[in-house]
Amino acid sequence: MHPGRLAMTARLCEELGLFALPRVVVVEPREADDDELAGVHTRDYIAEVRRVSEDPAFPAPERGLGTEDDPAFAGMHEASARIAGGSLDAADAILAGRAQHAVNFAGGMHHAAADRASGFCIYNDAALAIRRLLDGGLSRVVYIDTDAHHGDGTQSIFWNDPRVLTISLHESGLTLFPGTGFAHEIGGPDALGSAVNVALPARTGDAGWLRAFHAIVPPLVEAFEPEAIVSQHGCDSHALDPLTNLRTSVDAQREAALTISRLAARHCDDRWLATGGGGYDVVRVVPRAWTHLVGIAAGHPVPLRTKTPGAWRDYVADAYPERLAPGETPPETMGDDADIWWRSWEVGFNPNDAVDRAVMATRKEVFPLHGLDPWFD
Fold first, then answer.
1. Which of the residues 41, 77, 101, 111 is marked catalytic?
2. Active site includes 214?
3. Which residues neighbour 345 within 8 Å (Cβ) at sequence distance 6 or greater?
4. How high is the pLDDT of residue 1?
């Protein structure tokens, strides 16, 4: 979670001219106040975050504060509240019609629960944005999470809310933190089918990952008829990521973002709020993946064969030499030159394929609850 990954992303967006596009506005985020944070978090938890932030020597591990994943540090509340404020401002801009699309690539803190920090996440900005959209008059929101880790915090916050459909495509909890997100997790008693989980096997790769994404996400979005999409674009599914095992490419992650953009245009009057998330190869993966996200949201997708600007490569090498291995240089192109061909679900289901079994497990659990056939869309 090194903050340099955000600086490198912003600099790459700037060097490629994305921030200067006529329809793009860059807004400095503010800190969300306690009343706003209480939209999804308990007052006791917010007070505890504030206390630990002021005195990190006395953590609260029972709240997830001061653990290996969420170490206590001075200013923790302010930094986390600023991330939350960015996503809340994005939601407000969409509600007011000032923006069709909004991106907060510092956000996507999807492990934070209502009363506990987890997995590097203190305040769940994505959930706060969803709540703001609902409070602002929208009746249905789809949340799409493509992080390699299960979006457990966001799922738990909306577990029994039929207005929110949470879809998480992630590495199976059998091999990766947080150990949740299996197909049978489908929502609370008043919202059955509102939680959708695709638990993919390790080493799935681009073809399987995109096959699973397209077999699950578009039909459910169409059936749910949302009024906005909030998406989390953790790029830690990449083959170079040191914490995960899904082995996708920047090219595949870009393809998923393009599809989400099209779904927003087709199903919810083009209202789309995108966040970042996980991503731990902070030089080779994160800046390119989230710059593609910004370009797509801005209506100016960056071609995969685009050269990364020399000024950006110099900046990374000068500012973050410790993030490069001896003799390593920052990536020279915006893509991985990967083959992202994927086999459509409509051509058939292979019960001997672990990815297909994961997809079918999810479809069997939730598709009938949305009036869909688990075998055919």
1. 111
2. no
3. 211, 214, 215, 359, 377
4. 85
Any idea of the CA torsion for 67, 69, 73, 75, to the nearest 10 degrees? -130
- Strands, DSSP E only, in 91-175? 101-104, 141-145, 164-171
Contact 210, 253 (CB under 8 A): no
Task: Write down the pLDDT at residue 149.
Answer: 98
Percentage above 90 pLDDT, the chain = 99
- Could you tell me the CA-to-CA distances from 151 to 87, 109, 138, 194, 232 in Å, in that order? 17, 9, 22, 13, 9
| Nearest Cα residue to 157 out of 199, 178, 120, 129 | 129
Q: Per-residue pLDDT averaged across 310-329, rounded?
A: 95
* Amino acid letter, residue 217: V
Could you give the CA distance from residue 92 to residue 98 in angstroms, rounded to a whole number?
A: 8
**Cα–Cα distances in Å, from 67 out to 70, 78, 118, 122?**
5, 18, 9, 12
Domains and CATH numbers, the chain: 4-26+82-370 (3.40.800.20)
Tell me: pLDDT of 343 over 90.
yes
* Per-residue pLDDT at 310 exceeds 80: yes
Is the confidence at residue 21, as pLDDT, over 80? yes
pLDDT at 338 over 80: yes
377: pLDDT confidence band, cut at 50, 70 and 90?
Answer: confident
Strand partners, 60: 65
Q: How far is CA 211 from the centre of its chain?
A: 19
